[in-house]
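So, could you explain this one?
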Amino acid sequence: NMSLLTLHYKLRDKLMDPTGVLLCNFLMANLCMSLLQFPFSASSSFAGGWLYGDFGCQLYAAVGFLFGIGVIFSLGLVILDGYIVIFGLAPQPRLLSYSLILIVCTWLLVLVFVVPPLLDIFGRYGLEPSGTSCTID
């Protein structure tokens, strides 16, 4: 993920078209999920139990849910963009602003799923049965 993001940055004048922006969004979400989830779950797994308390559990699960759903929705945007381009449904010229609007709307939709369990409105976050990680309960 990091190597592809670096490549997109170095070749931004050629690769940062509307599809490239959607791909960078997907790569960034994937990278954030890896960096913000792995260290906590790995250390807790080695210790045999969750090490970061209830607040850490809530935060870990919310971040995991945020980027987990974000990765899925971002991949969906890349697929949708490919479909639109292949079948000639995209307006000409393709504007970067359309991709940015899609990305913002997608992340706002992701927040609709992430925030209610964080506030105990609909569902809640808690320890998984293994006791080494947290997720939606």
Remarks:
- The chain has a mean pLDDT of 90.
